[in-house]
Fold this sequence. Notes:
15% strand; alpha+beta; 490 residues; Nucleotidyltransferase, domain 5
Amino acid sequence: MPPHNLYRRLAELVDWSFLYEKTRSLYSRTGQPSLDPVVFFKLVLVGRLENLVSDRRLVEHCALRLDILWFLGYEVDEELPWHSTVSRTRQLFPAAVFERLFDHVFAQCVARGLVAGERQAVDSAPVKANASLETVLEKQPPGPRGPVLATDAPAGPAPAGSVVTAPAHQLRNLAAHQARLVAHSSVPGARHEKARLLSNKTHYSPTDPDARISIKPGKARALNYLCSLAVDTATGVISHVQADLADSRDSLHLPRLLAGLQQRLQAHELRLRELLADAGYANGTNYALLEGQKVTAWIPVFGQYKAEIEGFTYRAQTDDYLCAAGKVLPFRKYDTRADGNWLKIYWATCSDCQQCPLKPTCVPGAKRKQLTRNIYDAAYRRAWQRQQSRRGQRMRRVRQSTVEPVFGSLIHHYGLRRMNVRGHAGAHKTMLLTAVAYNLKKLLKYRPQQQLSLAVALPSPLLAANRRSWRRHRRPEAPTRTIQKRLFRK
């Protein structure tokens, strides 16, 4: 093998011996020897590096490559482990072992100077689950003796996620919405039974109960997992990765992602100062959480948010609003919406509004003017001001050029286009292995920039002659490029 071979350099880069200590409690001292943990992790990393999803194809591919056999420690005529052994070993190892491998590689990235830690870009993308949408079943309503299943099988524990848990009003709204879409759809075949709009509130996958039905604008519904990443903006190293359920908003996963990211950075004495994300992470709770940890949130607010209310002026000292007629709308009470978000309610007195000449245009059908604002409106306003600034526009471009190319590489070149395992824990392990393979490639490609500075000391008479020559040939009307050409010829 030549010295520049990928797997030869990879074998010299990583010390795999720590895996024996982490997996010692999972192996028995008696019986036939099991699959070596180092061989297992090398094998599954080869699958990520070679963009292979299937374990069968992985074993067949490794048997044809001499460099991979040498990397795994196998002879040419020695038989590789079965694909079923690889699958069972993946299920045997807990996610903590995979996270330990990720931390080990991340520590090498920090030691080589690839991680600054101060600025992190966060994003998420759906990953196709190892289940088909054609096999989903309808959830059964809960009964007094458990879910009522239309089968002749003996009663037993209900499968995970097979019971309806959504409130009745959400189910009614969902049914009405689906009926409107089907009735007004002009697509041929939209009224077919298989073309119905599936929802996580009414259907589940018996193949992979943790997979969720999600939809992306412009694409069909599919069973997916959500991959959440944090990427260091210095050189694009992945600093955190986690698998989330795909039926919830991105903003709900930020607190757990931030906790894991902060813990990893603090272990290497790095401090997070700026966090970059898209509008999907805009949430008052997230803004307050980041401000409490003294982290600047470069997260744009939603387009429907308005920092100022037309005709009303907010006064932070007294926490009230002043209308165009000079009347005061003080803070009255807190309230909650259906989604659980807290609100602040401001309203004026009825006497002020009844005698106001602006009432026909301000509140034509009400007795008084009422304003509703989010409880984190101050944090929203500060985030909106940062978004409108010149630096906020630059941070948006930095995020787009940092984390989005990483997702493209993982999906198209590191086998993250589809899961080959089932369950939330298996998806998390696969995403960790993909991030480890990506960071290892970053380590192998990294070359420190050696800047050579040559200081030439010229004698004083020569410097004076150069100044006189410059003054003699310098002409105010001549362009700078012409002057440089003349001096270069001289």
